[in-house]
Design a protein that fits this description.
The structure holds 3 protein chains of 3 kinds. By secondary structure, chain A is an all-alpha fold. Helix content of chain A is 74%, strand content 0%. Chain A has helices at 2-23, 27-47, 51-74, 91-111, 124-133, 139-161. In chain C, helix 4 (101-117) packs antiparallel against helix 5 and helix 11 (253-278) packs across helix 12 (292-315). Classes of the chains: A mainly alpha, B alpha+beta, C mainly alpha.
């Protein structure tokens, strides 16, 4: 019962903040709304009894990506002056894409087997760690992803150094 | 080359343009149109590279066969010896004089001040705006006809102050006086003196210049007047790119009280306590400078004991100033007052001595023309000996120990705010600022006053001209001060402390004099003109803080905001002296 | 003597059950009570810390500080802080023109909230004397303290003040950079302890505290934490002599008070986290016999760390932003990374059956070796730079 109420509260936070991101006139406010949406997602993770993911959500999305976005926003020219609706004549296209995306996601989720709620008896971090580094787990994709990220990082450094 | 020989050379070079000043005035009268040529010759050929003082005098009536006029007065110095004085006449209706700022950047602020207060226009000055008063101020207060609010009479003592044998404050009798005049269409709220009241336009122009390789928005930032690290009410108008300084302009005058005009109203001795308020950290030095200047006009012989006492007080003052400045540098570096209070502790002990001899801790009013006001008792001497021989050397070692090899302090100060020697001379910088750039110029040696030539001390110099070197010069100068103090206290003779009887009202023979001393912050000069009366005819203060501040932009350009505050601390200004 | 704190909480629980409330309600009330207690601990500490800070700084500067003059100042001026707090609460709340109202008002709340939230996972004693023993304890602290940046950003941005904006820019550069060495040194501890739970980390230091086994991560963590809480040598965000008060410039009244409190709470929290991670938390002599002693030990350790923080605050000057960032990226981060790599290998190589002391000794030796290598590299670099500089001088000459 409490959990359901909390779920609706967090869901409302995520949805409301998400709508606000694309509708508010002030781009800095939009970035702050985005952070609130991230926070709501972290709350949803807590409800799913995945505190590690909640903390990662806070740490990575709010602490790193959010800051990056706000920093970029603060460096935007003329942010103090212009306060207009962030719509242009292609808004209907974007809306169409969003609806399509939603449809695809609903379709995919419906394909998944139904999950029955049950209390978790194991420590999710241990399992996560095992999944990442165990040969039977996802060690190859994990390492590939890290190599990709390192390559991107080095590329960024190279581009930034040239001048 | 002696001053006399230089006069002859100049006269030979410019036969039409130069004549000797009429006695009792000194120096040369230079024709207005030839001033720039004469100054160029002085700087490039004759070695007078240091323009110390620029000021103006108003002569509304014809004197000694000269017509009514404004006079611009310049004092040039070479590496040793006295001044070369140039007088330039300008007519009273439209007073213009060519500007020397392109040749001597040190004239920049001083010419603006002369325009502001005296109304002499300097043609060719790149930025001739008012400096101490605000744009839109009506009139030029140092002109002889100017009457301030609450004006009563030209000179003190005012008869009206003692109508029934008891003092009455004029302010209580005449609300606002007769001299507060507003234009007919004036309104307080809608008042805007010029199109650019706060001086932003020049900065906006710099701010609009964008580096094409680095298209960053530039920001105009107002540091002050309310800012924790401007050491008073100083406003720094700064254009930033990121945090890097692109343009910086000190805006001064928030404490302006027209010290010069007050000086002209006062009697000669009545000015002495006002000099205390110039650089309120070093009142004893200010007293000494004024006494030295007036004694050049008066024919007095200062008794030996008085000279020794003067030197003792002046060197204690130097010690206070330097240790406080080092402390404030620490404050600006963010040491949470610890360093400053360390300096304050020593200062308290020294001002105790000042209180014992003069009766006041900060505003000493101690020197008199021809001596000092009170003698030092045997107790005072013993106390001073204890300070000079035991306490202060230890204090210097403590500062040395905490600062000199402090890694963070070195990181912050080495190679920050570099001022090359040539620039320092051109900008008229004096004091530790100049000596840290490698110029061994100390008035105590270059043009000895009082009895400084009888003491054994070194002129401290360093080579790099950065903040760290200024600190090192100050530290070493404190040691030299202690050295002088020890010699003076050892040799302190007995005898009178005044030449003749102390007099309240004195008449000073007609003439002009420029008396200067090596104040802790640099050259403190008093330019005085007397017409033989009870009051100075012209009284001008050339303050080291004011002139040194002119070089601030040179020092700060290209550094960060964080550096600006410690560069400012290393210049060592007191706003009481800047704004006068 | 049993565990006094547990006994007290059991007694209260019994009392509540005795009134006839149902079980879930009682546990709910108990949660609320413990939340209040945990929120009050830092606030109460801070009230005395402010007084202690003023006293200590005064003594170090040859002053008296708050003293017993006046009727209400109390012995040693201890009432002074309460008077200040009341003043702060009753001051007019000024909102300057042109501020962005909502972020401007949320920012102090956010910062204060995060300062308090961190305390939930700090163990004050063995067993259940902890807000909540999360299995991600230390990661939770890191996550929330990274979110504290938004308070600064929002305040700096919304204040309509250039000093505040510059401060916000600096906060991004400073806080994000120093998070990296902080996290890397915490990772070493987590790896050696084998858990992120604060209680487990304390338990792992049963015989040897990690300060002895892992001195290098301890020092790195301390330096990075000083930067994270904006303490003196890294005090850039509210650098008084440069930025007036940085992002707090436009705040007054209790909103400013919240920043002020949060700053002190954070400093104490760093002491608490450091004590837990490296000083063995509540571990100490006789804890097994009298668990209440654990609470005494941790508070003693926190006090010690806070004193260290005070001394640094009062004596050190501030570095410039480029120097701070250079130090971080060119020295601290590589050192922390190297440390992490080497210790993870060494730790794996040590026999799992080895005693705590053997393990600690080997780790200590590894640490010393890494420090020596780093020192040699820095010295070599310095010598090379110096040679270059001298060559340049010769060219000039």
């Amino acid at each position: 019962m409490t959990q359901q109420i909390l779920f609706f509260v967090f869901g409302a936070i995520v949805l409301g903040a998400g709508v606000a991101v694309v509708t508010v006139r002030n781009i800095f406010h939009a970035a702050l709304w985005l952070l609130l949406a991230f926070f709501g997602v972290a709350g949803l993770y807590v409800l799913l009894e995945a505190p590690f993911f909640a903390a990662v959500q806070l740490f990575v999305y709010m602490g790193a990506i959010g800051v990056l976005i706000i920093f970029a926003v603060m460096l935007t020219q003329g942010i103090m002056k212009e306060k207009q609706l962030p719509f242009n004549e292609q808004w209907w296209m974007a809306g169409l894409m969003a609806v399509l995306l939603l449809a695809v996601m609903v379709y995919v989720i419906r394909q998944l087997p139904a999950v029955t709620p049950q209390a978790l008896q194991w420590d999710s971090i241990d399992l996560l760690g095992m999944a990442f580094v165990h040969p039977q787990g996802f060690v190859l994709p994990f390492e590939l992803a890290s190599v990709l990220l390192v390559a991107a990082l080095l590329g960024a450094v190279t581009i930034a150094r040239e001048r | 080359m002696t001053i006399q020989a230089t006069h002859e050379t100049l006269k030979a070079k410019f036969p039409d343009a130069i004549q000797d000043a009429h006695a009792p005035y000194t120096g040369l009268i230079v024709d207005r149109d030839h001033l720039v040529a004469v100054a160029t010759a002085l700087r490039d050929e004759l070695g007078f590279r240091y323009l110390s003082s620029v000021t103006g005098v108003d002569y509304p009536a014809a004197t000694d066969g000269l017509p009514p006029r404004f006079e611009a007065v310049y004092h040039f110095y070479q590496s040793e010896g006295g001044p070369l004085v140039l007088h330039v006449h300008a007519d009273r209706e439209n007073p213009t004089v060519p500007s020397l700022t392109p040749l001597f950047p040190s004239a920049d602020f001083q010419e603006r001040e002369a325009w502001d207060l005296m109304g002499i226009r300097f043609e060719g000055h790149p930025d001739l705006r008012r400096i101490l008063l605000w744009e839109g101020y009506a009139g030029h207060p140092l002109q002889k006809g100017f009457q301030e609010v609450y004006y009563e009479a030209d000179t003190k003592p005012f008869d009206s102050r003692w109508p029934e044998g008891a003092p009455v404050r004029a302010e209580s009798r005449v609300p606002l006086g007769r001299n507060l005049r507003y234009p007919a269409d004036f309104s307080m709220q809608g008042w805007c003196p010029t199109d650019d009241p706060w001086g932003y336009i020049a900065h906006d122009q710099v701010a609009d210049l964008k580096d094409t390789a680095h298209p960053t928005d530039r920001v105009v930032l107002n540091m002050g007047p309310h800012h924790p690290s401007t050491h008073g009410v100083l406003r720094l108008l700064v254009t930033l790119e990121g945090e890097t300084i692109k343009k910086l302009e000190p805006v001064v005058g928030f404490l302006h009280r027209c010290h010069d005009k007050i000086g002209e109203r006062n009697t000669w001795l009545g000015n002495m306590p006002y000099t205390d308020r110039l650089d309120y950290v070093c009142s004893m030095s200010n007293n000494l400078g004024y006494a030295v200047a007036v004694e050049k006009l008066l024919d007095v012989k200062v008794p030996e004991r008085a000279e020794y006492i003067r030197v003792i007080m002046a060197e204690f003052t130097r010690f206070i100033n330097h240790i406080i400045d080092i402390g404030f540098t620490g404050n600006d570096l963010g040491i949470y007052f610890t360093a400053m209070l360390m300096g304050m502790e020593e200062r308290e002990l020294i001002v105790d001595l000042f209180e014992r001899v003069s009766g006041s801790r900060m505003m000493c009013n101690y020197m008199r023309f021809g001596g000092v006001a009170h003698d030092m008792t045997a107790d005072d001497v013993a106390y001073a000996r204890q300070l000079a021989f035991e306490r202060l050397p230890q204090a210097i070692d403590k500062v040395d120990q905490f600062f000199t090899n402090n890694e963070v302090f070195k990181q912050r100060s080495i190679n920050v705010g570099v001022l090359p020697a040539e620039t320092a001379i051109a900008y008229g910088c004096t004091g530790p600022l100049l000596r840290a750039s490698g110029v061994p110029y100390d008035i105590r040696r270059a043009e000895p006053y009082s009895i400084y030539d009888s003491f054994d001390f070194d002129v401290v110099t360093r080579q790099n001209g950065d903040v760290y070197d200024r600190y090192m010069v100050r530290l070493e100068e404190m040691r030299q001060s202690v050295r002088i103090l020890q010699q003076a206290l050892n040799r302190l003779p007995d005898g009178p402390i005044m030449d003749g009887k102390p007099k309240g009202l004195i008449k000073v023979p007609a003439g002009e004099a420029y008396g200067r001393i090596e104040a802790p912050k640099g050259e403190l000069g008093f330019y005085l003109v007397s017409e033989g009366g009870n009051n100075p005819y012209r009284y001008h203060v050339r303050s080291p803080s004011f002139v040194n501040l002119g070089a601030l932009e040179e020092m700060c350009k290209g550094y960060l905001i964080a550096d600006t505050v410690i560069i400012l601390a290393s210049v060592d200004i007191t706003l009481g002296e800047v704004d006068r | 003597m049993g565990d006094a704190i547990v006994n007290v909480s059991a007694w209260i629980e019994g009392l509540l059950l005795g009134t006839g409330l149902s079980e879930p309600w009682v546990s709910f009330i108990m949660t609320v009570i413990s939340a209040f207690v945990i929120a009050f601990i830092p606030v109460v500490i801070v009230i005395f810390l402010v007084w202690g800070y003023r006293k200590a700084s005064a003594r170090m500067q040859g002053r008296l500080g708050p003293n017993s003059s006046g009727t209400w100042a109390g012995p040693g001026g201890i009432v002074q802080t309460f008077a200040d707090a009341i003043k702060m609460l009753t001051k007019e709340d000024i909102r300057p023109a042109g501020v962005d109202v909502i972020p401007y008002n949320i920012a102090p709340i956010l910062i204060f909230f995060i300062a308090l939230v961190v305390w939930a996972v700090i163990p004050f004693g063995p067993g259940t004397v902890i807000g909540v023993d999360l299995n991600i304890g230390i990661f939770y602290i890191m996550a929330f303290s990274s979110a504290a940046l938004f308070g600064v950003l929002m305040a700096g941005w919304s204040s309509n003040n250039k000093y505040a904006t510059v401060s916000a820019f600096r906060s991004v550069a400073l806080l994000i950079s120093y998070e990296i060495p902080q996290l890397l040194s915490v990772l070493v501890v987590v790896m050696v302890a084998g858990s992120m739970s604060m209680q487990d980390i304390v338990g792992a230091q049963r015989s040897v505290m990690y300060l002895i086994a892992l001195p290098l991560p301890a020092v790195i963590f301390l330096i990075a934490s000083l930067a994270e809480v904006n303490a003196r040598p890294f005090e850039l965000l509210e650098a008084e002599s440069e930025l007036v008060a940085g992002y707090q410039t436009e705040y007054s009244g209790m909103k400013f008070g919240m920043y002020y409190l949060a700053e002190f709470i954070n400093s104490v929290a760093v002491g608490a986290i450091f004590s837990t991670l490296f000083l063995g938390g509540w571990q100490g002599p006789f804890v097994d016999a009298a668990p209440i002693l654990g609470t005494v030990w941790i508070f003693a350790k926190i006090t010690l760390m806070t004193m260290l923080w005070m001394f640094i605050q009062i004596t050190l000057p501030r570095l410039r932003i480029d120097q701070i960032l250079n130090f971080n990226w060119k020295f601290l981060v590589p050192l922390a990374l190297a440390n992490l790599c080497v210790i993870s290998i060494v730790n794996k190589l040590i026999n799992a059956q080895a005693s705590d002391w053997t393990r600690a000794g080997i780790l200590l030796l590894t640490n010393i070796a890494i420090a020596l290598v780093a020192w040699t590299l820095v010295a070599l670099g310095g010598r090379q730079k110096r040679r270059q500089y001298e060559a340049e001088l010769e060219v000039v000459a």
